[in-house]
Design brief:
With 496 residues, this protein is an alpha/beta fold. It is 38% helix and 23% strand. The structure holds glyceraldehyde-3-phosphate (G3H). One of its GO terms (cellular component) is cytoplasm.
């Protein structure tokens, strides 16, 4: 059970502690932040409201621990990560329980998130050993005007302290996708979990603690964004920020210092459907892509752009599947569960009301109880409706009818987002041309957008982000190149 057994030391009564220098502590603030269960809308957990002084201390400790960790053999770093991965998977049940209670993730998906995270950590350990063990060797006489008098040896060295800020929708998986690459590369970690999802993340951190990582290498502070958010992201002790979330990422990018940034922000992933598409396949992918975890995924299908000639058929097939979605509590593993907060539900409702007023066709009746919103397909959406452009992060999906592939591409590219997109057609040549024309980080052909498998490159353009993720790219992003140049007194070939 969450907060008990091996996890007992991370709580104190009804409050969860924060993690500093290998120990679980209560904040000197004496204050806590409540985590509201999206389903019951009652306080589920409380976490520490850490202070700026505590952030300063964490940074100091993380910096010192990193110096020693950088000197720890790569194979030993990998060994500890493998251990943490095994412990994480062993404790999937209590962590999944937190995900269900804090973010209303359906029960089975919650378990999947933890298992996927363990696999990600193991893969990162292996990939790190492979790629960080390699450097480059250059000779000078390949550049005009040079003799062979210089040998350049380059290797990859850590950046220092990595600040990891995951979002509410994957508080475990998108935390380890930052932690594991940072650690294998020799960096230390300061983790600031989202408030909603913090307790799941604290349990995950404890799995790393149980694996025996050195004290101070991994730290986790919780608290109010208004109190410690900017303080963390603008802290001079931070050498890299890896953030996943919404618009806040744009503000962080503007305020952060001269440090590498990895930002995964929003998306308005378009699904372009041509006349020759397999409509059963499309409908299945729209359901999976648009409605899984109630649409609260950055890679969710967020607008369907379907050729007018097949639109009626497609809408009918999707509607038949929407009717079968189970709506209710995450504990019962329902497909559609409460969205994360009341403000999120209100925002979604605002988009729905705007579309209604402007004449969209509602394929189902709009229904909401508290934070629970029933799945809704909106047909005949037009570009003057907010939902054509904005990201609902909820179970409501607009359909725009198009008369040419170019129209679909144009809509996709007019968005300020550029995360992923997808195209459905049996004509691979057309699919490739459309993929090339879509201004997004990834285009999926004949499948819904998705980040995984977790070693694939994952990136957004425009307001969707900076840098590329995926295990290999994240490791490479969390290192810098260090060169040593050996200078010879005369060209090496002078020796005969
Ligand atoms: O919400 C953002 C995630 O990166 C999406 O991940 O495609 O595995 O759901 P996913």
């Amino acid at each position: 059970m969450a907060g008990s057994g091996v996890f007992a030391e991370i709580t104190d009564g009804d409050e969860f502690k924060y993690y500093i220098e290998g120990e679980w502590k209560k904040s000197a603030s004496g204050k806590s932040v409540s985590i509201i269960n999206p389903t019951t809308r009652k306080t589920q957990y409380k976490v520490q409201a850490c202070t700026q002084e505590e952030v300063n201390k964490v940074m100091e400790i993380a910096k010192a621990a990193q110096k020693l960790w950088a000197k720890t053999p790569l194979w030993k770093r990998a060994e500890l990560l493998h251990k943490a991965a095994a412990i994480l998977k062993e404790h999937k049940a209590p962590i999944a329980e937190c995900l269900v209670k804090e973010i209303a993730k359906p029960a089975k998906d919650a378990v999947t998130e933890v298992v996927r995270s363990g696999d990600l950590v193991s893969y990162t350990a292996e990939e790190g050993v492979r790629i960080l063990g390699q450097g480059t060797y250059l000779v000078s006489d390949s550049f005009p005007g040079n003799e062979r008098t210089k040998y350049c040896l380059s290797s990859k060295i850590p950046l220092g302290v990595v600040l990891a800020i995951p979002p509410f929708n994957y508080p475990v998986n998108l935390a380890v996708s930052k932690l594991a690459p940072a650690l294998i590369a020799g960096n230390s970690i300061v983790l600031k979990p989202p408030t909603q999802g913090a307790v799941s993340a604290l349990h995950m951190v404890h799995c790393f603690h149980l694996a025996g990582f050195p004290k101070g290498l991994i730290n986790c502070v919780t608290g109010k964004g208004s109190e410690i958010g900017d303080f963390l992201t603008m802290h001079p002790g931070v050498n890299c920020i890896s953030f996943t979330g919404g618009d806040t990422g744009i503000a962080i990018s503007k305020k952060a210092g001269m440090i590498p940034l990895q930002m995964e922000l929003g998306g308005k992933d378009a699904c372009i459907v041509l006349e020759d598409a397999d409509l059963d396949l499309v409908a299945a992918n729209i359901i999976k892509g648009g409605f899984s975890y109630s649409g609260q995924r950055c890679t969710a299908v967020k607008v369907v752009l379907v050729m007018e000639s097949v639109a009626d058929d497609l809408v009918a097939k999707v509607n038949a599947k929407v009717a079968k979605l189970k709506v209710g509590p995450p504990e019962d593993d329902c497909d559609i569960t409460a969205v994360v907060s009341e403000s999120s539900a209100n925002f979604i409702e605002g988009l729905v009301v705007d579309a209604k007023q402007k004449g969209a066709t509602f394929c189902q009746e709009y229904k909401r109880e508290g934070n629970l919103i029933w799945p809704l397909l909106l047909d005949h959406v037009r570009p003057d409706m907010r939902i054509a452009w904005e990201e609902p992060f909820g179970p409501v999906l607009p359909v725009i009818r198009i008369t040419s592939a170019e129209e679909g591409i144009h809509h996709c590219n007019a968005s300020n987002f550029g995360l992923q997109g997808c195209v459905f057609t049996k004509d691979i040549n057309k699919a490739m041309l459309i993929s090339d024309a879509m201004e997004t980080g990834t285009v999926q052909i004949n499948s819904a957008p998705a980040r995984g498998p977790d070693h694939f490159p994952f990136q957004g353009i425009k307001d969707s982000g900076i840098g590329s993720q995926g295990i290999t790219n994240s490791i490479n992003m969390m290192v810098k190149v260090k060169s040593t140049v050996i200078n010879l007194p005369c060209p090496s070939y002078a020796m005969g």
